[in-house]
Amino acid sequence: MARRTAGTMFAALYGELVVHSWHDPASEHDAYQLFHQRSLAMGWLDDRASTVEGDDPEKRAAVAPGLWAMNDAGWSHPLAAPAPNLISWFQVEASAVAGDRPLPVQPFLRCAEDTTARIGTVRLSAVQILLPVQGLDASSRPPYALVPSLQTIDWFGEYDPRSRTSVKIRIDSGRDPSISSVAPQLARRFSQLDQGVFVYGTNELADPDGAPTPPFDDSFWNGPPQHGTTLTGELVEWSCEAVGWLAEAVADSAAGLGVHAPLLLTVTRT
Questions:
Q1: Is the model's pLDDT at 50 over the cut of 60?
Q2: Domain of 113?
Q3: N or C: which end of the chain has fewer CB within 10 A?
C-alpha cells in the first residue's frame, strides 16, 4: 500500500559559494550523496522507499519513518535563471505531517545549508522553498498548535540584537488565486502572532517579476507565478533555520485560511 505523504518540498539557495581549495568537482560526494548522508545522520531520512515488496518483514520494520524521502539535489540546475546566482538545490518528498507538527522546513533547510557548507563558504542572498501546503490539514490542528512552529520560538530567544535582518518575503500560489484573496488576513495573522522571530512590517501585492525564477518547470507546482503577496519585516537572524521557521509559519497560517495549493516562498535579504 502506498504511503501517504505531504508532497514535494524543494529548496533553492542563492548567493555566493566560495568553494574550498581542496574540493574536487568530480568527487563522488556530490550534493545528492552529501544531503542523503546528512539526512541519515540526523535521523531525518525516511528510507522506507528503499525496501521493496517481498522484503523480509523484520527489515521493513527496522526502517525509521523519518521526515522526508530523498528525491534529487545538485549544485547547479539547467532551468536556473542567470541571476541571482543559484548555488545549490534540494528536492524531497515530505512525509505526512502530524496534527501538532509543522512541515519540517527548519530541518530541511538546515540540512541543505550544512550540505552546501561542506564544500565551501556560503554567503546567502535569498532562499526559495516550494511548500506543499496542500498536504496540511488545518482542521486536524489541536487548539494549542494552530501554528505549530510557535512551540519552537525559544530556540531563537538568545540572539545578538545586531543579527536582526531586514527581509522581503514573496509568497506565490501560481495560477491559483488563493494567496491573493487571503493576503490581508495573512498579513494580519503575522502582525498578531506572539513571537519575535519575524517582526512584520508591511504587505503589498507581489510583482510576478520580483522574485527569482524557480529552477523547475511550471507544471511541477501549478506555475507560473501569477498570484502572490509580499511581506516585509525583520528576521531575528539571517540563517536557514530562521527562514525555515518563517516558512513553517507561513504554510500553517495559509492552510488555516483555506489555502490548499502549493506555495512558492522566496525570502530575500534586503
A1: no
A2: 5-269
A3: N
